[in-house]
Specification:
Blueprint: H1 2-9, H2 15-31, H3 34-46, H4 53-66, H5 72-87, H6 94-123, H7 126-131, H8 134-176, H9 178-225, H10 227-232, H11 236-289, H12 295-337, H13 345-348, E1 363-370, E2 379-386, E3 391-396, H14 402-409, E4 417-422, E5 425-426, H15 432-436, E6 439-442, H16 453-457, H17 466-475, H18 478-482, H19 502-515, E7 520-524, H20 532-542, E8 550-554, E9 566-571, E10 574-579, H21 581-587, H22 590-600
Parallel strand pairs: 3-8, 3-9, 6-7, 7-8
Antiparallel strand pairs: 1-2, 1-4, 4-5, 9-10
The structure holds adenosine-5'-triphosphate (ATP).
Transmembrane segments: 20-39, 74-93, 159-176, 182-199, 271-289
Protein name: ABC transporter ATP-binding protein
GO cellular component, one term: plasma membrane
Amino acid sequence: MAKFLGIIDYFRNYWKISIFSIAMVSLFEIVDLFVPYAVGQILNVLSGQAVDRPIQAIVTTTSQITGFASDKTLSLAVLLMLVCLISVGRAPIQPWLGAWFQWDTAFRARREHAEKALEKVLTLPLEFYDENNPGRVAARVAKGLSNYTWTYPEITGQLLPKFFRVVGIFAVIWLIDWRIALLLLISFVSIVGFSLTGLKRLSDQEARLDKYMEDTDSRTSEIITNIKTVKAFATETSELKRQRQRLDREFKVLDYRIHLGYVKLGMWERLIVQSCVFLVLAFTVMATVQGKISLGHFITTLTISSMAYAEIEPISQLAEVFARRYASMVRFHEFMQLPVGTDASTLTQQPEAVPTYQFTGKVEFSHLTFGYNSERPVLKDINLLIEPYQTIALVGRSGSGKSTLVKLLFRYFEPNQGAVLMDGQDIRRLDVTGYRKRLAIVHQEVDVFNGTLLDNLIYGNPNASRDHVREACRIAQVDEFIRQMPMGYSTIVGERGVRLSGGQRQRLGIARALIVDPDVLIFDEATSSLDYESERSIQLAMRSILGTRTLVIIAHRLSTIREADKIVVLDQGSIVEVGSHEELVRRGGIYQRLHSLQETGQLLA
Ligand SMILES: Nc1ncnc2c1ncn2[C@@H]1O[C@H](COP(=O)(O)OP(=O)(O)OP(=O)(O)O)[C@@H](O)[C@H]1O
């Protein structure tokens, strides 16, 4: 029930218009029942039987107003006028009530929730993306949104009004003969109960199918993202085989459980409906023969009860479609309920409310302990002071915790113990958006967005002046390859920067970080894709920024960090050595061993 309410909550902002449109469409569906009723009355007039009292009252009033005699002709004229008014008069209004409001609401809700889903994507903590790949997340959001959009008009414009129409039919028959109405009611309750039980079972299978489909989509998306690796390792056949197994698994659930289930459900529903139609026919004939109901009522009862049974099929089809989509709507709802990260306020606050900080760049890690899983600390009691404008290098074996330290500096994660201080203030007390705007990082893999080179360069600072951009490009040696590009700064780089080489992407990343003019600049293996010559020339150029801001450099190639003021060696999450290059080489510890290995290619004991 909570899940169902969660789904309804999607349309919370539109409840007034929803109730209005459902009520109006239902009213029209009920008013429509007057036509078979009037036909029955016409038959009574033609066969010389009396018409019902309300109709007779209308005929008498018409006679008084117009002066025509209250006879057979006037009765027929009045009945025909009423039929015309209801069937022709409502024709131009119905599409507006039946279609416009339903789709308008569905599209408005889609716009609202597509935006909210994007907000969610932007504010979920990084851990979420460690466990869920882009294909899985995108598929869940897209499927959920489209299912809500298609389902709403079907439920509010068709399923509910049809349900109310059946209630109206029941009321009309009750007025004619309560026993027939009771028979109708019992048959309806049994059919609906039977269908709902079947649909519940099938909806569980749908949820299973959705999960399987997400797994398949997620792997397909991974294959596309990693297509170069797939081709390089010639694993196309094994990827295809694995996906084929997944598709087979999906097919079995889809065909043998779900589809077969719906067919069986439909078979039983039809059998029950036809038996009920027959019973109502038999009852009505008996009632007419016994003189309990008139010939007109006999026709009316048969016509509208068959109308009621005729509604069963579309109602069950709509319920079936709803059941098919229910699971993905629930999954979308669950996605929207996921807890957001600490930086969620970024989207809710007004740009002018974001404080503008200016730091000297004094960074302190104080008794910092952290683990992705709190039982297994990745960083243990880290104490490190980085003075303003200092350049410090973090080195250590792979997995020693260097990148994690930087993630904590960016406040992607909260420490389990201790704190990160910027200019003496705990960063948890600072506004996370304003704080992050004063940092910049260049990763080993530089993310590039589809667009021009310039768009990518000014991504973090769209208001940067031309001169500022040029200067950053000069330092990062981007200007060198921009000159060779056909359209210069306006060259389109392609999705994920596929039209750039690895080294060019890294240089772009360095320039992009410099354009932000940060107080603390972090290089996470930022020159690893560069050839020795490019790396060396960037190092020379970068000398111009040494001492202008705090620099944190994570490097495996120790040759790149000799000039750092301080080299910090991490091992298994702890700081084991701190000093300048010469000091650490002299000390003969881990750094000395790593250094010798790189210089001579030999591992010291
Ligand atoms: N998102 C994560 N979830 C769980 N564990 C993680 C996550 N990221 C890193 N780790 C683990 O934390 C430890 C430190 O990883 P980290 O990336 O900080 O090391 P590193 O020194 O930067 O390594 P490298 O030099 O190879 O980049 C490793 O054992 C790693 O497996």
